[in-house]
Amino acid sequence: MRVEIWSDVVCPWCYIGKARFEKGLAAFAGRDGVEVVHRSFELAAGAPREAGKSVAEELKAKYGVDDAQLRAMEERVGAAAAAEGLGMRHDRFSTGTFDLHRVLHLARERGLQDRLLDALYEANFAQARPISEDDTIVDIAAGAGLDADEVRTVLADDTAYADAVRADEKEAAELGATGVPFFVIDRRFAVSGGQPAQVFTQALEQAAAAGGLQTVAAAGDDGAVCTDDACDVP
Amino acid sequence: MRVEIWSDVVCPWCYIGKARFEKGLAAFAGRDGVEVVHRSFELAAGAPREAGKSVAEELKAKYGVDDAQLRAMEERVGAAAAAEGLGMRHDRFSTGTFDLHRVLHLARERGLQDRLLDALYEANFAQARPISEDDTIVDIAAGAGLDADEVRTVLADDTAYADAVRADEKEAAELGATGVPFFVIDRRFAVSGGQPAQVFTQALEQAAAAGGLQTVAAAGDDGAVCTDDACDVP
């Protein structure tokens, strides 16, 4: 069973939703047969990396909320994070995330994608580190087990893994995702949003009950097949 | 809709099945929304490339068939090919195909996979060209639009796209494929064997009727989602 999770590094519900999903997965009997793949989604598509841009100022400018509304929003999301044992600093930064997704694709090739995503979430939300900056990204990635020089090389080359990021985003659109987190099980069942853990457990159980591939036509009289042993000839 | 086709370059039912599938696809109303991906499967896993090994001698040695049995087999498969307008020479060669699959993965990255697979089938089955040989492979690939130097570089480096070939083969095993061609629609419906065209049309219609993703839980009260416009906070 394969779960694909579209998310963005600066999306608080992705951060909270990942923890909730993992709790839901832990309660699923078939958890050992589940492969998790993280896929790219930029909330602000094509936005550049930008140093020192505070989330608070961005939210106020973008949605016209005042300080009191902003505080109330942040308190609700902070409480949801705290309920999962996650930190959420209100003085965190905002940035375009295309380059971060490129590095996450490098990490995927190295088998370190999940660890790097956790580390980026932690750095961004719990520690309010400036994840727009090369040195910070390299430091976080190295802490997750990646080779620092390799990360610098990817950051310096705009084209590295760029197609992989765009391919993920194209697939999200094709699957009907308009926001994140977006969870897809076996390309068959979708869960949208950072739902409670038990919703994920139920979705996994539903996918397991639905079974794997449905055979429309097996090799036989009309359709021949070759195996290592022989090519049947009807 | 996405159709993945596991096949091997030296598998006659893959060659015939591809033509039948394409005929079935052409009769499917939703054909414009279908993406086709070719995946690797070696009939003789790990076998090296080998020059000048005739299929006839291999079949006789491997299955103990005599000349008359061999002729009868080849006539049946040749008739099935001819019915699809495809040539089938009985003096064709056999070879390990790992390197050919590696080049097919290069072609996939260049958007030329389908063209290269057609060209390899044509060269192998209809023209009995020695597809074990570097110069022949490069010539065929260049004819399909690939850069000859790039193909030579991939052939010379055993590790290039090797993981991609093995990943395809691992997935085939996980999906229960024991022979090829093996067609999978949206990771949900399987057709095994080079079935008649109408079987493929029906399978595509069945997959279309089954619809796309089934939403288990939509973003709402319990599960929040971030979009480009806002992060909902429940």
TrEMBL record, chains A, B:
InterPro entries: DSBA-like_thioredoxin_dom (IPR001853), Thioredoxin-like_sf (IPR036249). It comes from the Bacteria. Coiled coil: none annotated. Pfam families: DSBA (PF01323). Residues 3-204 form the DSBA-like thioredoxin domain. This is DsbA family oxidoreductase. The lineage of its organism: Bacteria, Bacillati, Actinomycetota, Actinomycetes, Kitasatosporales.
